[in-house]
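Quick one, tokens below:
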């Protein structure tokens, strides 16, 4: 049986998407396939994308039956390429393809954070500071720390992480790399620099949290990807179809909000969530990660 209990806002995604049996939906961020599984259970069909080969390989095994029955097309691709993928499917196997809805659950999965040895977790200081979700990408987080000019490093920490000490941190990294470039290789190396510069934070948060997130966003070009992909979905949606997005940090949410406002102004459809939908108390008690999730919905005319 396919389990999907770990997916953030799963019930809310279904409530807003309202999947119809036999209709096609896009899951742009397959991950462990939790949202995909929930949509498939309604009798609907899914085209799912993820740029992480590990996610796709695991999905191929877990969803073997659904793939064989042609209920699921699971494809390794960056969601910025979704128009090419859909066009190719329409030309080869799914003539007259139109989507009855689409969902994007941005960011990273728990597997990627905790178990995949990509240097995405503070708990594993010995791991290389890689951070690539798609191993075809050429540049790792360590590469960025070694190569970016100080000013660009400061911009990265400030714009992607909202880190108030961005300039001091950038300065400390450049100082360290001039003396010991060999000491900028692992998660622990980065944490030892941040510990010198960043003041302790309230609660249990590691002081490096914002800077760490900023590096991951930069390595994977996460904000540009969202900016590029969202307008590509709209032409594929049927009239009345809904686009559901889940953002985990402010930068992502702002991009979604801005596109939705622009589309509404252009009379392409309506924003159905004037305020973002957030996790219920019961979900929060089971999964603290859902605390920062914001779900928004746009309905196409
Ligand atoms: C939060 S997880 C999705 C979890 C999924 N909804 C579930 O229920 O299991 C985000 C996934 O999106 C993928 N991802 C992030 N950016 C992507 C992009 N530009 N193109 C394709 N996949 C992407 C990540 O590799 C990750 O597996």
């Amino acid at each position: 049986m396919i389990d999907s209990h770990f997916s953030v806002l799963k019930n809310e995604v279904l409530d807003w998407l309202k999947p119809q049996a036999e209709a096609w939906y896009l899951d742009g961020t397959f991950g462990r396939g939790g949202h995909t599984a929930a949509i498939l259970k309604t009798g609907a069909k899914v085209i799912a994308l993820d740029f992480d080969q590990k996610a796709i390989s695991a999905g191929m095994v877990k969803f073997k039956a659904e793939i064989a029955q042609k209920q699921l097309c699971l494809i390794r691709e960056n969601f910025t390429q979704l128009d090419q993928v859909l066009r190719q499917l329409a030309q080869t196997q799914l003539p007259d393809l139109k989507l009855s809805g689409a969902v994007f659950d941005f960011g990273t999965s728990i597997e990627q954070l905790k178990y995949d040895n990509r240097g995405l977790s503070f708990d594993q200081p010995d791991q290389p500071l890689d951070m690539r979700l798609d191993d075809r990408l050429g540049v790792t987080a360590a590469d960025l720390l070694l190569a970016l000019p100080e000013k660009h490093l400061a911009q990265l920490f400030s714009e992607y992480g909202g880190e108030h000490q961005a300039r001091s941190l950038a300065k400390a990294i450049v100082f360290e790399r001039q003396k010991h470039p060999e000491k900028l290789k692992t998660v622990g190396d980065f944490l030892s620099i941040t510990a010198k510069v960043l003041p302790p934070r309230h609660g249990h948060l590691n002081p490096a949290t914002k800077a760490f997130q900023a590096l991951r966003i930069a390595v994977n070009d996460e904000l540009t990807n969202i900016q590029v992909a969202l307008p590509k979905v709209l032409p594929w949606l049927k009239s009345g179809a809904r686009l559901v997005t889940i953002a985990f940090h402010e930068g992502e949410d702002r991009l979604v909000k801005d596109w939705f406002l622009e589309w509404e102004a252009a009379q392409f459809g309506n924003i159905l969530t004037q305020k973002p939908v957030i996790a219920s108390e019961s979900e929060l008690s089971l999964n603290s990660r859902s605390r920062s999730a914001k779900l928004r919905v746009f309905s196409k005319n």
